[in-house]
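go over both lines:
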Amino acid sequence: MPIFSFLLFVFISSFTPGPNNIMAMAFSNKHGYKNTLKFCLGVGVGFFVITLMCTFLNNILLSALPIIELPLTIFGVAYMLYLAYKILTNKGLNGGNNEGNSNGFFIGILLQFVNPKGILFGITVVSTFIIPYYNSYFSYFLFSLFLGMVGVMSTFSWSLFGSIFQKHLLQYRQQYNIAMAVLLAYSAFSILIK
């Protein structure tokens, strides 16, 4: 597995603005860090489950139809290039408004099942970085656990430093977007050159 490309893709996809991070920042501003931590843990658990589901569904498809590996890889690369384009053309941050914070943990879990960025990220990372290189259930579990922990770290960092990130991202938005888009495009193209 191209480990640098994997980590680069995971970092960029996890720490750039998206529903999880924007909600964590909004949660923090509205409800405080304690309730935000519950939300962040929920995001991690939800993403762990999504990643495991993606792994097993992709594994079933690949074992039943080995020809699907190439289309899944192309889909993953195309999605990563699409994300690079969206990051490059991003005009700003739109904070979300979240009502009813008492169930922040469950909101974090459920968000993963309706979060297109998270689901597509799970499919992409599994089909391009995990399934082609690993075939043990233990490795699938460890990767899913790792990705869930990255989800917790990214949402918690956005909640903890949300106002600082927002200020700097708004001030240096164009440079940040260009750097993230270039790194993501590099990660996508490196997958094609296995």
Remarks:
- DSSP finds nine helices and no strands in the chain.
- Confidence is low (pLDDT under 50) at residues 93-100.
- The CA atoms of residues 36 and 141 lie 26 Å apart.
